[in-house]
Amino acid sequence: MKCVDDFRWRLGSKELVPIVIGGMGVDISTPQLALVAARLGGIGHLSDAMMMDMADRYFKTHFTRDKTRANMASVNNPDKSGVHFNPGAVAEATRLHVSHAMEAKRGDGMIFINCMEKLTMNAPRETMQTRMVAALDAGIDGITLAAGLNQNSFHLIQDHPRFRDAKLGIIVSSVRALQIFIRRNAKLNRLPDYVIVEGPLAGGHLGFGMDWERYDLKTIVAEVQAYLKKENLDIPLIAAGGIFTGSDAAGFLENGVAAVQVATRFTIVQESGLPEVAKQAYLSAIEDDIEVNMQSPTGYPMRMLKNTPALGQGVRPNCEAYGYLLENGECEYIAAYEQEVGQQSGGGKPAVNDRICLCTHMRNYDVWTCGQNTYRLKDTTRRLEDGTYLLPSAEHVFKDYQFSRDHRILLPE
């Protein structure tokens, strides 16, 4: 059987190792992780989730503090329509994060940014445009549109001088979603440079309903391939979701995809932004610890560990500081929180059991989203004498994907 290294992906003038590390937020896909992928000839993603907070951590800026102060009048009001982001601050935070990564990039690979379209930020069109333009200004190699694909996003940057230079891709979970996107953007004469086909075993938010088990990545990929062939469209496909070994990846490459996107095995590497406690929880998980639920206020199903600390918490909505999911002043978590507060008697902290304050808990790394194969992570490394697991390097995992055969996994030393 072939291995991943037997294949290459030509994207524009670049010849790439066909491995893409997915954009995991909030800052799980750190610049350090993306830089490893680029150095080794593949593609690494940054994530633009909660970019202002990330800039504060990396560069000692005060974007989140300033936003909080500007919106204090809304603290005790469940209607958050008055909470606004400063577009200049959003752009500056994005430029800082992206430009520092691009300046540090070495090797023949590329760095993309994953733009989450469900970050509506109380002004979805304006903030999405601001984030994309700032990333392009800062020199990002490509943009992947994800998490609630907006059919008009290409239109937001059609006047940017890098619109036809930077690589632009989309994530879909069905052939229908791709058909609609191509139809809506036909007048731009600008096809996606790549399409990531994400199956139902992926981590985090899913592009399926709670019937996700009815679907299969190989089937969806074949349907998309058939559509592209019928329409005579030459768009490279990237398979994603549940690709756990190099042999899994090579199987998709042999069946005609240009590359694979992988993430789960990189959640626990040394360069991942997850804290140690979360990495060890992932490594200790068994299959029954993984669930798909409707806790996300986005309305999308989300896969996570059952013992994720955010579940059942009732923190006060922190929209003044964050508010990344606000739309028309509303968020499903606010509604759930206010309902619990209204039903309480005798005070105390409300327990919100059907929704998570995603901004607060993602910022604190308390939402342990994961792929379906997370329980297999313990088989990719060694257990130490103290009961914890050795964290591999990103380079080790990347090369294991690239060179392994026969579903073997090389353990780190």
Topology:
Layout: E1 9-11, E2 14-16, E3 19-21, H1 31-39, E4 43-47, H2 51-59, H3 63-70, H4 87-104, E5 110-116, H5 124-137, E6 142-146, H6 153-156, E7 167-172, H7 175-184, E8 194-198, E9 204-205, H8 217-230, E10 237-240, H9 246-254, E11 259-262, H10 276-284, E12 290-293, E13 302-305, H11 332-343, H12 358-363, H13 394-403
Parallel strand pairs: 3-4, 3-11, 4-5, 5-6, 6-7, 7-8, 8-10, 10-11
Antiparallel strand pairs: 1-2, 9-13, 12-13
Helix pairs in contact: 1-4, 2-4, 4-5
Features:
413 residues, alpha/beta, TIM Barrel, eight-stranded parallel beta barrel, 13 helices
Fold and architecture overview:
- This protein has 413 residues and is α/β, with parallel strands linked by helices.
- It has a domain at 4-273 and 388-403: Aldolase class I (TIM Barrel, Alpha-Beta Barrel), CATH 3.20.20.
- It contains 13 helices and 13 strands.
- It has helices spanning 31-39, 51-59, 63-70, 87-104, 124-137, 153-156, 175-184, 217-230, 246-254, 276-284, 332-343, 358-363, 394-403, and strands spanning 9-11, 14-16, 19-21, 43-47, 110-116, 142-146, 167-172, 194-198, 204-205, 237-240, 259-262, 290-293, 302-305.
- The strands form three sheets. Strands 3-4-5-6-7-8-10-11 form an eight-stranded parallel β-barrel, surrounded by seven helices. A three-stranded antiparallel beta sheet has the order 9-13-12, with no helix packed on it.
- Helix 1 (31-39) packs parallel to helix 4 (87-104), helix 2 crosses helix 4 (87-104) and helix 4 (87-104) runs parallel beside helix 5 (124-137).
- The longest helix has 18 residues, at 87-104.
